[in-house]
Structures are given as C-alpha cells and as structure tokens.
Amino acid sequence: MKSMPNVFGPGSRLGIVGGGQLARMIALSAAELAISSHIFTPEPHCPAGDVAAQVTQAEYDDEVALAAFADSVDIITYEFENVPAKTAALLASRRPLHPNSDALETTQDRLLEKEFIAGLNLPVASFHAIDTIEDLSHGVQILGSPCILKTRRFGYDGKGQIKIEANDGLNRAFDEMSGAPAILEAYIPFTREISVVAARNAVGEFCAFDICENVHRDHILQFTYVPANIQNKTAEIAISAARKIADALQYVGVIAVEMFVTSDGSGERIIINEIAPRVHNSAHWTIDGANTSQFQQHVRAICGLPLGSVARRGTIEMENIVGDATQRWLDFLGEPNTHLHLYGKRETRPGRKMGHVTRVR
Amino acid sequence: MKSMPNVFGPGSRLGIVGGGQLARMIALSAAELAISSHIFTPEPHCPAGDVAAQVTQAEYDDEVALAAFADSVDIITYEFENVPAKTAALLASRRPLHPNSDALETTQDRLLEKEFIAGLNLPVASFHAIDTIEDLSHGVQILGSPCILKTRRFGYDGKGQIKIEANDGLNRAFDEMSGAPAILEAYIPFTREISVVAARNAVGEFCAFDICENVHRDHILQFTYVPANIQNKTAEIAISAARKIADALQYVGVIAVEMFVTSDGSGERIIINEIAPRVHNSAHWTIDGANTSQFQQHVRAICGLPLGSVARRGTIEMENIVGDATQRWLDFLGEPNTHLHLYGKRETRPGRKMGHVTRVR
C-alpha cells in the first residue's frame, strides 16, 4: 500500500518551468489556493510573468539559476514536454518534480512514445524508425502511402512533419529532416480527433474530464467540442487507455492523450496519436465549463490534494484565438455566453495562440 | 448625447490602489483580458502583489511614488473607499480614475452619504449629525432608542459603531468616538439584509447581479445567499434604487448598495444602509456562480468595454472564511460543488477575511 504523499497547501510556493499561456493559467489557478508561483523562463516578457509572484529569466542550462529557482520553491512542474533532461534532473534532485522524468523522456521522443504505447498493448499507428534514406525507402514499402515522416523530437503544432503521398520525393522529404532522427508513421484515415484529459495523483486516483473532440486548422487546434460525438463505449475505451498510460508512467498531474477515432462497418475504434505530459489546449474549456479547471486539477494532483469534481456545466465549444483573430476580442466580449481569455502576448504572429474563448450553452 | 468613452483593451495597464483581496481578485480578472495590474499599497506583503505585474510599496501621501505609479499605467481604480481625497486628486490629475471622486467623497462620510441618499428621495434610517454631547442627547430624544452612534469616517466591519439602548450611557458612548465627527442613526428592526451589486459604465448602461441576502456575525459578513428570499417587487425596487444612486453619482464601475428589508402587515420595504463604491464581498459568488464575475464586470466598466452577462448558474451559498476557519481549507477542497478561494494572507488573525467558498447547486 502506498503512503500518502507530501501535501503542499496554502502558502506553498510552486515553481513552473516555462512562461507561456499554460504556465500563466496554472499560476492563476494556484493563486486561488494561495499557492504562489515562481516562473523559470528564458523569455524576456513571458505571459506568465504578469501573474506570478516571481520570475527568473535564465537559460535552461544555467545551473546556478536553476538551483536558486529550485531552492526558492516547494515543488516544481512544467508547462511543456521539451524541458531538457539535464534541466529536469537538476531540478528533481532538489525538489519534487511532477510529472516525473519517465513521463518527460517517453513523450519527448516520438519513437519511444510509440514503443511505450504499443508495449501496453494499446493501439497506435504502425511506425518505423528512420535514420537513413534506406530506412525511409524501406519504411514506405512496409507502411504504404500516404504516410507521415516526423522528427522524433521537438515537434509541435505540425512542425517537423511531412506527408509522403507516394513512393517518390523520398529524398526531398528525408532532406527536410536535416539529419534529425525521425519516425515514419502510417497515415490514419480518421473520422474524428479526440483527447482524453485527466488527472492522476500520487496515490493513484485517476479522474478524466469529459472527452474533447478537436478540430485542427493548419495543424493548430482551432475548435474543441464537448461532449465528443462518439459512442459511449468508445469513450470508455479511450478513458481506460489514458488511465493505463498514466498508471504505467506512475504519473502525477494532468495528462492529455490525443487519439484518432476511425469508423467502419464494425464500429468505432481509437488509435492513440500522442501523449502530452501536461495541461492541454483541448481542455481550456474546463476553466469556464467544468466544476474544477484542468489547471486547478493539475495543482491539486501535484500538491497531493484531493482531486476536484470534473462535472461539466453545459455543452461546450472552445475556440482558439490564433494570430490576427485576436483583433476580434471586442466581438468575443460582446457574446453573452462566451468567456474570453487572452494570454497577454505582446506580439501577434501568424499561427501564434493569443487566447481562447469558451462558449457554454 | 454622450460620446463614447476611451476604451482600454488588451495590453492596457491597470493601476489598483490597495493590495488586499479585492485588488487581488480584480487583478486576476484583468489578467483574463490581458490587462496587467500595478498595485499601489503601503503594505509590505500584500495579497494582490503575488498576482500583479508590478507593485509599488509606498504611503498614500508619497506624491513622488503616486505620480510614478500613475504615469506607469493607463487607468486607475481602487479597492476601498478610504483612499485619501488628496491621493485620489493627484491620481485623477494624471490618469482616468474610476469610480470618480464624487463617489469617494460621498461614501467616505456617513453623514454626506445619508444626506445624498435622502436627497434622492430614497429611504434611509433617520439620522442626526453628532459633534457634541448635546447633539447626542438631542439626537436620542428625536430618534428614540435603541439607536446607533457611528463615526462619520473610516468605519468598516462594525468598527467605530456603538449601539445606544436607552437614554443613559450617553457620555460613555460619546467618549468612545474620541472626538471624531459622528452620526446617530435610528435602529432598523430589519428582517433581512440584502445588497445590490451592479455595474454602470460611462455611457450609462447599468446591469445588476441577482440580489444577495447577507448574514453577518460579529458585524462581519459570514454568508451570502442568492437569490435573496424577498418578493420580486422588493427586488425591483432595490435595483431601481441602486440605479438611481449610480446615475446620480455619474458612477463608472461596480457599486454595492447595502439595504435592510423590513416587513410588516403592509409588506416588505427597503431601507438603504450604505454605499460601497467598489467590488463587494457579498458578490464574490459571481466568480463561480455568474456568467461574468463582479471583478471582470468592474474591469469592463472602467475600461469602457461592454458589460457582461450576469446570468446566474444555480442557487448560491457563499461562505466567508474568517480567522481560524482557514484551517478548514482541506475540508472545503473536498466538497464537490464548492469553489475555494484563498487570499494568500501570511498571517491569520481573528476577524480577518482569509478567503471564501462558493457553493453552487
């Protein structure tokens, strides 16, 4: 039997690695519980800095700054899965770091991630490791086309991905990877994309929000609808897959598992696409649409507090505000059942997530 | 016809005078709209400081610090009505200050406040200005006993009040005022206490939250229930009185009007007790229980933005966490429909407001 974890209650200090919108919304939620936040980020003007008690601006390899940051807080989390392993190890040597380094290592590398998921006997797209042009040629023969070539590391929002439509253009595709280790994945002709966002705490309690149905545009999440338009049975299978993953990682915090739903004569199937060891864009609706937001749930989980109710308040539509769409802020403010959240980014760029709105009906 | 006011949108900088929990919750709401906050407070570790982009710690008569504070922001508000007139004037000379100085002056002085309300032909308790012991003796004769002697200025949570039960003990009561200008008010045998919390913007739009029914303990708000258990007709009269007050003050921002409800054979009547030119404890439930919180509504009003929907999400009970009750935080976190808000105060003192919970059913 597990012993109860340390409890970090009101007055505790939370260190957050990364200073973007996810860190900002974690800090805002921690504040509700009188937990103050200290942000560690290389960015000069980060969105989270405006709502945090303290900010350290330093590089992820600045060991002196990392140590001082760790020593100034009681517990540490992060907002993105690309925290360098050495950074994570240094922090974890000084303070509890959640989610743990297993979760980071597994999700930082698409090949390890796919192998991990497959190893749990959960469905993933067929995949093939690609280090050489011969690997690629061989992989395409095995997986067939179309298929998708991705860098193993540092991909997000479709960056580092190229779709291979036929058995030509392989050299060009390979060159685009610039020699980075890659993975080739079978193309999944999905009918929907969904995500399971859930929390697991140190004593193994697991609690999932209602499943999100996600619509991407140019590889960037554009809309999330809840509940997802899938069969109850599919939802159960999806949640149980996410739980299996979280349990296997001894995961503590909020986790997101992105999945494809395919559909044929025999019914719906899920195929797991990606694991995000953090709060997730597709659950931003929980701030306004659930009894407990994913951000507070994350804080509760990592601080050893009881998980909150995930009851939903209505039918949900979340819309990301990307790039110039931020100019529509005044329209959004005028919509009666719409909750506007802007991230305080000083510069608008195409494809940059500037905020989101949640419509609850 | 009125011209449209200046609009302060995302990226604007909001100055907040005072660093307590009201400032903290205003700052948290402003952040949702990417409006960053700068707190001005004499306190060394203020609750609002942990969630604000900037804090100036200085006295309210430090004109250099006040000027620098004003120059660093686009618009200024405050969290309490006892901002010194000179401080307010200096700030208002440099940046838009909402609510305006009329609202401050009127509500800082119980005598001016009562005269103002009576001047609008709205019901107030009978009152009598008290400067001398002869005034007091005369006042008690006119108003009868029991009646209540209050300092004209700087009273809150029952401080500076003494109940006079009969025509003796007048010297002692007078001495307790320590020579401060005072006001004697008739005692109102009320059946309920309610508050109307509403927003008015610069073009005169007015929007009230559902009326709050308030229960005090030791003069400190303990519970708020919404909807108030009063007749619809009474609610209409109460809201229309609040609107008349806000209009007369050319008020911009959130205003709270505290009222007594009396009841006799001829039905319910309201009697106005006090005006608070700010966000108000009795509407803290709006964070979790209304489509727009009073804090965001205040930011919208002062920034020239459209007012938000005040639709309520259920039946509400708000409980203040006062003094040692803050030790119950873990119990509150475990209640399923309960939203916990702690203010990050470092020291717990009897009678100190440490946080609140909102139960939505």
Automatic annotation (TrEMBL), chains A, B:
Pathway: Purine metabolism; IMP biosynthesis via de novo pathway; 5-amino-1-(5-phospho-D-ribosyl)imidazole-4-carboxylate from 5-amino-1-(5-phospho-D-ribosyl)imidazole (N5-CAIR route): step 1/2. It is an enzyme of class 6 (ligase). One of its GO terms (biological process) is 'de novo' IMP biosynthetic process. Pfam families: ATP-grasp (PF02222), PurK_C (PF17769), RS_preATP-grasp-like (PF22660). Keywords: ATP-binding, Ligase, Nucleotide-binding, Purine biosynthesis. Residues 114-303 form the ATP-grasp domain. One of its GO terms (cellular component) is cytosol. Catalyzes the ATP-dependent conversion of 5-aminoimidazole ribonucleotide (AIR) and HCO(3)(-) to N5-carboxyaminoimidazole ribonucleotide (N5-CAIR). Catalyzes the ATP-dependent conversion of 5-aminoimidazole ribonucleotide (AIR) and HCO(3)- to N5-carboxyaminoimidazole ribonucleotide (N5-CAIR). Belongs to the PurK/PurT family. Homodimer. This is N5-carboxyaminoimidazole ribonucleotide synthase.
